[in-house]
Amino acid sequence: MKTVFRILLIFVSVSVFLISCEKNSGEGGNATITGSVWVRNYNSTFTSLLSEYAGVKEDVYIVYGDNVGYDDKVETDYLGYYRFNYLRKGKYTIYVFSEDSTMTSPDGKIAVIEEVEITENDQLLIVPQLLIYN
Hints:
The protein is mainly beta. It is built from one helix and nine strands, in the order H-E-E-E-E-E-E-E-E-E. The protein is elongated and about 45 Å long.
């Protein structure tokens, strides 16, 4: 009976170890997600386009997998580009806030969201340009 118990204990221990080694989305890898933000500046009623430009100093957020809330945030550079480094394989949500051009959001802001997936180590994943309104 002791032998069966020991074998069962070893099996459970190995199973727990293997499950704990499974790495989910997040930091600790060597993949990169990068992209840019572009701004369309309209008048207050969104009927006339006033200008367009790179989204400088915009906050861009990343969510790892199915986490609640954002896991990291970066600010775009002087050309509107952002980058999240050292990521593992998995699913990610990238988002930035924009003025609501439909004027239906109570606070006047909406999230512009892109869902992406890193499928390989050392992958450079380029997110489609995030278009926001101002």
